[in-house]
Amino acid sequence: MKAVDFITQIRNGDIDVVEHTRKVIEQIKKINKEYHYFNAVSEKEALEQAEKVAKNPSGKLAGLPVSFKDAICVKGVETTAGSRILKGYRPTFDATVVERVKKEGGIVIGKTSQDEFGFGAFSVNMGIGYEKPLNPFDKERACGGSSGGSGGISQKADFPHISLGESTGGSIVNPASFCGVFGLCPTYGRVSRYGLLDYSNSLDKIGPMAKYADDIALMMEVIAGFDENESTCADKPVDDYTKQIDIDISGMKIGVIKEAFNGADAGVEKAVRGKIAELEGLGAEYEEISLPTAIKFGIPTYYLISTSEASTNLAKYCGMRYGKHEKLEEGFNEYFTKVRSMHLGQEAKRRIILGTFARMAGYRDAYYMKAMAVRTKIIQEYKKAFKEFDALVCPTVSMLPPKFTDIDKLSVLDHYNIDNLTVGPNLAGLPHMNVPVGFEGKLPVGMMLIANHFDENSLIRIGSDLVK
Amino acid sequence: MNKFTTDVVIGLEIHVEMATDTKLFCGCATSGDDKPNSRTCEVCLGMPGSKPVLNKKAVEYALRLCIALGCKISPELIFSRKSYFYPDMAKNYQISQYEIPLGINGKLRLGSGKTVGITRVHMEEDPAALIHPAGIMESKYVLVDYNRSGDPLVEVVTEPDLESPEEARDFMKQLITILNYLGIFDVNRCVIKADANISIKESKYTRVEIKNITGFKEIERALKYEVERQKQEVKSIVQETRAWDSDVGITRSMRKKEVEEEYGYIIDPDLVKTEISTKWIKEVSDKMPELAQEKAIRYARDFKITEDDARVIAAERLLAELFEKVAEEVDPVLAAKWLRRELVRVLNYNNKEMKDLVIDEKHLIELLKMVEKKEITDAVAKKILEELIQKPFSPKDYVAKQGVKMIVDTKQIQRFCEEAISENPKAVEDYQTGEKKSLQFLIGQVMRKTKGQADPAMVNKLMKELID
Q1: Backbone CA torsion sign across A158, A163, A166, A170
Q2: pLDDT band (50, 70, 90) for residue B257
C-alpha cells in the first residue's frame, strides 16, 4: 500500500494506529534477525508517538512507519552511524528531518544499518560488532551502500513505509538500485543536515527511499526547506512534489550519458536501455551526451574531498564525552589514540589517514586544493548539459548486486570505483534518483536520473511516469 | 638574511574576546551564569550532528576593528578548520580563518607617533577552559568547562615592527583604547591575550615565541625578562616556543620549533561564505565613533588644551564624552584640568571607574562655572565633587545653603592670617630664617580656619606681606 493511501485510512479511522505500529515493530524485529537492517529498533518511542497520532491524526504522515539511517540523530535513541566508537550514544536532540517527520505524525521505528560513517558502497564496511545487511532478493548478496539497511527494509517491508537515507557519493541511489526501490538524493542544501553525523559536510544529503515515487514526493514535501540551524540549507520555497506524479513528461529532453555504459554489466545495460527506449512513447525526446570530466575525474576528486572533510569530522570521536570510554591512563594523546585504535573500523581508519594526508601542508595544494578546483570543473560540465537537457540518465551502478564472496576479492581501489557513476551528481550537488527499472534474473536493476539544481520535480515526474 | 637592524625585534599576535551577547556559532550566552558548563548547547559542546550558524553581530564587531585599523577587508568571510587534538577542543578542530582573513594590511599608531603594521585580523572561536584542580604541574587530571567554548575571538597579528617591550606595551594599550571605543570589548569580562615573537640582534634575530601573556602590563614584563634572558644566553638561543609564567616572572621552554606546526587546514564546509559587501562595510563605518587618536588631535587643536591632557582624556571614551559636553559650557582648559585630574582622582579614591559614574553633567558644569567665576575655591569645589559622585544635587544650591562661597574680603582674610601668625611663632621664625616651606604651613592654617573658603591667592599675598 502506498503511504498516501495508508495515511488516508489512518485519518478515516479505518486502521488502529497503535495496533498497526505494534505489529510493524514485531515484524521488523523478525526481519532484522534474518536480514540485519536495523542497528536500533525504537519500540518505546514508536508506540508513544502512535498514541499521540491516535489522538490527532491530522499530520501529513499520520501513523506512517519511518526508518532513519543510523547517522541521523533521533533524541533518546542510540545513534552510532554504525560505529562502535559511538556505542551507547543517545542524542539529546532530534535531527531537523526527524523533528519534521514527527511533527507530521510519522512514527520513527528505528535506525537502519550502514557502512561505518557511510564509508562504503556495499554495506560491508561495518563498524566493529555490526552485522552486514543482506540483500532482500538474495541473502548471499549485498544491499549496496552506504544506506544499505534503508534500502533493504524499504523493499522487504510489507507495510507502508519510507526510509530516510543519506548520500555523500551515491549512498542513496546505490542501495536503492541494489534493493529495487526508489531513492531520491535531493539537491545539496534542499534538506537540512542538522542532526546528521557528518561524513563529508559539503557532500552529505538526506533523502527518502521507498517503493513508490508517490511516497518519495510526499516525504520530500515534509523534509525539504529552510532551517535556521543549518547554514548550508537553502532559503527557497518548497515545490509541490506530489503534484508532479500526475504531470506527463511530453516535451521533456533527456540526455543519455554515453560514457556511463562503458564496462556496465550486460544485464544492467539491457534493462536501462530498454527503459530509455520507453521515453519516446511517453512523449519525451532523448539523445546521447558526453560527460567526460565527471566520469574520468569524479572518483579521485570525490575521495580526496570527502576523506579530507571526514578526517576532521571524525576527530571528535575520541572517547571523551560520548560513546565508548576506556580506562583513563597516560596523557590525552595516548588515551585518544587508544580509544580510536580500538573502536574505529578499518575503512574508517583508512579514510582518516588518507584525508589527513591530503590536507597536510606540502600536499594540500596538490591534493585537497586541486580536487576542489576539479569539482568546480565538474559542476560546470553538468551546468552546460542542463542548458540543453531537462534531465540526464544512466545506470545507477554498473553491476548487479554482487555476492559477498565476490566483494571480498575486490581491491580497495575496485571498491572505490563502484561509485564512478554516482559521485558526479553528488560532487555537483545535483538531485538524482534511482528508478527501479526491472530485473536481470531475480536481481533488480536501477536507472539513475539526474536533474538541475532544485529541480527535484523533473525527477519525480519522469520516475513516476516510467514506473507506474 | 633578514632585513632587521634594530637591537630588539618584536611582533605580536593578540587574541581579543569580543563582547557579543551570544557565542560565535550558537545562541548560548557569553556571560552570566558561571557555574561550569551551564552556558552550553550541542553546538558549543561539539555534539555529533550539531552544526554552526554564524553570529552576524560578531562579524560586525570584527569589521569595526578592521575599519579602525585601516585594514583592507576581504569581500568574503571564509572560515577554515584548524585541526589538532587537545582536550579543550570540543570538536578537535577549531573554526578559524586561514587563507583569506577578514582584514589585512592595516596599521596602528603608537603614542610616540610611530606606526606599526597590522598583517592580518581574523575571527575564530575560543576553545573551552581547562581546570587543573591541583595546579598545572601537579594535577593528574583536568576538568573542562565549556562555558567559554565558542566565544568569539578576533586575532590581530602585527608586523615585526616593535623595537622594545615598552613599545609592545604601548601597542597593547592603544589597541585596548580602540577596542573600548568601538564598544566591542568589555574590560571587565573579556580577556585579551598575546603571543609575542621576539629576537635580538646579538643572536642574529633567532626567533623565540612567548605564549600566553595576559594584559598590557604583563607584556612589558614578559618581554623585558625575555630580552635580558636572550642577551645573557646569547650563545644558546634557539628557535623555540616558551611560556610566560607571570607568577614567577620568567619564561619557560615549551618546545623547540624545528618545523611549522601542522594544522591541516580545510575550508569549513558547514559554513557558507558570507559576503561582505561595500554597503555593509559602509553601514558599519557610518556607525563608528570618532576614535581616541582623532579626538586627541581635535581637542588640542580646537580646545587649546595641552596635548598630554587631550591624549589622556581621549583615551577613555566615557571621560572624553563627558569632557566634550562640559567644554562647551566651561573654559576647556579648566574643564580638562578638572576632569583629567580631579575627577579621575576622586574616582580612583572611591575605587570606581568611569562606567560606574552616575553624574548629571549639568551639575558638573554648574560646579565648574563657580570655579571659573571664582565663586568658590578649588578646595571647596573638590569637596563638592567628592559628594557629587555619590549622589546628585545642585552644587549651586549647596553653596548657597552651606554658605561656602569664596571669602574675598581682605580684612576678614587678614584677620585669619594674623591669628595664624600669632598661634604659630615657630613657623614664622623658621620662615624668616630662610625655611621658605613654612609659608605653606601658615597658609594651610588659614585655609583650615576658613574651611577652605579663603581665596588662596589672596591669602598667599597677605601672608607674605605680613611676615616678610
Answers
A1: positive
A2: low
pLDDT one-digit tens code per residue, A322-351 = 999 999 988 899 999 999 999 999 999 999
Read off the pLDDT of residues B201-252 as tens digits, 9 standing for 90 and up. Answer: 999 999 999 998 998 889 999 999 999 999 999 999 999 999 999 889 999 9
Chain A residues within an 8 Å CB radius of B149: none
Q: CA A454, CA B321: separation in Å to the nearest integer? A: 54
Identify whether the C-beta of residue A108 lies closer than 8 Å to the C-beta of residue A152: no
The answer to whether B45 and B90 have CB atoms below 8 angstroms apart is yes
Q: What is the pLDDT of residue B1?
A: 53
**Count of A–B CB contacts within 8 Å?**
100
3-state helix, strand and coil shares in percent for chain A, rounded to the nearest 5? 45, 15, 40
Domains detected in chain B: 8-282 (no CATH), 292-402 (no CATH), 410-467 (1.10.10.410)
Q: Is the distance from CB of B244 to CB of B222 less than 8 angstroms?
A: yes
What residues in B contact A332, CB-CB < 8 Å? 85-87
End-to-end CA distance of chain A: 14
Q: How far apart are the first and last CA of chain B?
A: 73
pLDDT, tens digit, for every residue of B296-343? 999 999 999 999 999 999 988 889 999 999 999 999 999 999 999 999
- Of A411, A440, A434, A386, the closest CA to residue A171 belongs to A434
Beta strand extents in B215-249 (DSSP E only)? 240-245
Inter-CA distances, B438 with B412, B414, B432, B449, B459, Å:
22, 18, 9, 17, 14
Residue B320, min C-alpha distance to chain A (Å):
42
Domain range for A187 is 1-468
Three-state secondary-structure class, residue B177: helix
Residues 213-242 of A with CB under 8 A from B: 228-232
CATH (domain of A90)? 3.90.1300.10
For residues A271 and A279, what is the distance between their CA atoms, to the nearest angstrom? 13
CA distance B330 to chain A (A): 54
Look at phi and psi of residue B192 and say left if phi exceeds 0, alpha if psi is from -120 to 50, else beta.
beta
- Residue B181 · residue B313 · CB < 8 Å: no
Q: How many independent structural domains does chain A possess? A: 1
Query: Parallel, antiparallel, or unpaired for β B8-17 and B152-158?
Result: antiparallel
How far apart (Å, rounded) are the C-alpha atoms in residues A438 and A417?
24
Q: Do β-strands A391-395 and A443-451 pair in parallel, antiparallel, or remain unpaired?
A: antiparallel
Report the run of H or E that residue B256 belongs to, with start and end: strand B250-256
ipTM over 0.85: yes
Per residue in A407-427, pLDDT tens?
999 999 999 999 999 999 999
| H or E segment to which residue B208 belongs | strand B208-214
The residues with which A231 forms a beta bridge, in sequence order, are none
Would you name the residues of A annotated as active-site residues? 69, 146, 171
* Residues A59 and A154: beta-carbon distance below 8 Å: no
Note whether B140 contacts A: Cβ–Cβ < 8 A.
no
